Amino acid sequence: MNITFYRKLAYKVADSVTRNGQYTETEIKDIRYGLVCIFSDFYKTLLYLLIFTVFSLTKEFISAFIAFLLLRPFLGGYHFKSELVCIIMSFLTMAIAIFAGKIIIIPYYIQLLLIIALPIFALLIIPVKDSPKKEYRKRTGILTGLITVLLLLSDYFYMPDNIITWSVLEVYVLSVYQLLIIKYMHNM
């Protein structure tokens, strides 16, 4: 089942934007695709925000969401074939980070170990498709490591629970899962 209302809306907006301009067909397709991506993420974010607000977990959702938002572009994740499954799994991922972060408090020494180990691990698992991108990989790895350290330090010093830490751990687990799936698919 595909949810298409945001796709129709994105196409209407793209058509109104490109109607008066001199755009090539490729540029129009790119604009449409970009708007579809933006509207897709926007409606899912609003849906999750609404659900977590109903349960008085707005601050916790925003903390988990920011951690995911900062790390996922660099570390990747797993994509589902169905949009409905994607929405459900994304919601469950957020819910796990929030409830695990509130219930299972990670000891300080393990948090400190994660602050050291995860950025190093990030350098090893940053996905790169071909060898000319090695310099990009190095910059991306350093940036990912810095973001990871900042997120974990903010959780360590400023948050009474471990929602951000659990979110970071989930992003890393999803990244490793994605790498294993890709490796398994290519070795078949």
Automatic annotation (TrEMBL):
<feature type="transmembrane region" description="Helical">
    <location>
        <begin position="46"/>
        <end position="71"/>
    </location>
</feature>
<feature type="transmembrane region" description="Helical">
    <location>
        <begin position="83"/>
        <end position="100"/>
    </location>
</feature>
<keyword id="KW-1133">Transmembrane helix</keyword>
<keyword id="KW-0378">Hydrolase</keyword>
<feature type="transmembrane region" description="Helical">
    <location>
        <begin position="106"/>
        <end position="128"/>
    </location>
</feature>
<dbReference type="GO" id="GO:0006508">
    <property type="term" value="P:proteolysis"/>
</dbReference>
<keyword id="KW-0472">Membrane</keyword>
<protein>
    <submittedName>
        <fullName>Accessory gene regulator B</fullName>
    </submittedName>
</protein>
<feature type="transmembrane region" description="Helical">
    <location>
        <begin position="163"/>
        <end position="182"/>
    </location>
</feature>
<dbReference type="GO" id="GO:0008233">
    <property type="term" value="F:peptidase activity"/>
</dbReference>
<dbReference type="InterPro" id="IPR006741">
    <property type="entry name" value="AgrB"/>
</dbReference>
<keyword id="KW-0673">Quorum sensing</keyword>
<dbReference type="GO" id="GO:0009372">
    <property type="term" value="P:quorum sensing"/>
</dbReference>
<dbReference type="Pfam" id="PF04647">
    <property type="entry name" value="AgrB"/>
</dbReference>
<feature type="transmembrane region" description="Helical">
    <location>
        <begin position="140"/>
        <end position="157"/>
    </location>
</feature>
<keyword id="KW-0812">Transmembrane</keyword>
<keyword id="KW-1003">Cell membrane</keyword>
<keyword id="KW-0645">Protease</keyword>
<dbReference type="GO" id="GO:0016020">
    <property type="term" value="C:membrane"/>
</dbReference>
